[in-house]
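task queued by scheduler; priority normal; single chain, no ligands, no partner chains; default sampling; output format set to structure tokens
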Amino acid sequence: MIEVWVGQGRYRGGEPDAGVETLHAFSFGAHYDPDNIGFGLLMACNEELLAPGAGFGEHPHRDTEIVTWVLDGILEHRDDHGRVALLGAGDVQRLSAGTGVRHTERNGGEHPLRFLQMWLRPDPLGGPPEYTAVTAPVPPAPGLQLLASGVPDACPPVRLRQPAAALYAGRPAGHDSCALPAAAYRYVHVARGTVHLNGATRLCPGDAARITGPEPVEARTDGPAEYLVWAMDPQPWA
């Protein structure tokens, strides 16, 4: 089953007066919808828009796998373990909060910053916090490129602390067609361009598809596009 959630229906949060706008795909913070608290292993998929100089002050996390994909601008990450990173468009970072970490995220450039931040359930819980940043931008290319995975036999740029999940990026420069990875749950988020699923479902920028079941799904683009695909096979109790 393919269920489309349009971008215009996402909850708008943040602090617009402070240059921070957030578009939430699921229940998050002050926004609670009992019928929309996650999908598969995903707990959040937020599109963050930060004006120059704006950001999130130091705040804590624990037992959360946070994966960030930069779309435009420069993201500055700092945490209480002394790690500092600057990420640009096409870069990806992963913060596994483990037993606890504090960090800040700010617009580190002179232009507006836009990024996707996705929260995943880790397995196992606990353990020391871990951080990975891949700052070699992922170039446009046909098909899907593996960004992050916890699948035991995979060799991703970013290793997740969740063996039942993998994240892929689609960044075709033009017409392209590819099969989505098989999984019990698949989540597709379109950042740029238009993506057609199985020739019948059309996703525009900001739209997402929640796909339940392992049936084959083909993604097709007719021009430049950018989209992310989560493939998840959680245990029945997850």
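post-processing summary
- The chain has no helices and 22 strands.
- The radius of gyration is 17 Å.
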